[in-house]
Amino acid sequence: KAGVTQTPRYLIKTRGQQVTLSCSPISGHRSVSWYQQTPGQGLQFLFEYFSETQRNKGNFPGRFSGRQFSNSRSEMNVSTLELGDSALYLCASSWDVETQYFGPGTRLLVL
Amino acid sequence: GQNIDQPTEMTATEGAIVQINCTYQTSGFNGLFWYQQHAGEAPTFLSYNVLDGLEEKGRFSSFLSRSKGYSYLLLKELQMKDSASYLCAVRASGTYKYIFGTGTRLKVLA
After folding, report:
1. Is the CB of A45 less than 8 angstroms away from the CB of B99?
2. Which residues, 6 or more positions from A15, have their beta carbon under 8 angstroms from its beta carbon?
3. pLDDT tens digits, residue range A34-82?
4. Which residues in chain A have their CB less than 8 angstroms from residue B100's CB?
5. Contact (Cβ atoms closer than 8 angstroms) between residue B34 and residue B97
């Protein structure tokens, strides 16, 4: 089975811009979670989608949003980028509430 | 509140045994996970404990005590490739949200 894929792998943006990241889960997995990883904070949970519905949400501002499509693929959007949004964004998929499997991540640099 | 504590860094010698501890305080519990993350790569799943006791998987074992809010990951016969960060994560009951610790960076020396 193919693993979780994320695109793009690297991204450079400037402050104020917006960005959309994409995640394709493992075939058959219905849950997709998004995390932000920074050196000081570790993995911070953004949100989780299950069958096209947001099931859980972390403590991030409304600039961070996401959605899930009927094929379980998910996108994450960050609007009005800030320098502090520079991070590795990881997506993880699972069938439901079982073990999560992570994608390679998208490294975002905001200048 | 919800909190997971792990040591920030550990150093061990090739061939040795190392134990990485994790203590947690979460609202509800529905499993504890250990992940390995090499620098610049995604976390990969190592182990899962939901009941008290020891789970063994080759050179890696994980232990859980729910009453003490405590887990450890035991790595035996350390190899250079085991140099990585080890993340402890708890899945909350009800919401099934995952809470991650900040990770323990393990350096294996020759």
Report:
1. yes
2. A81, A82, A83, A110, A111
3. 999 998 788 999 999 999 999 889 999 999 999 999 999 999 999 999 9
4. 35, 42-45
5. no
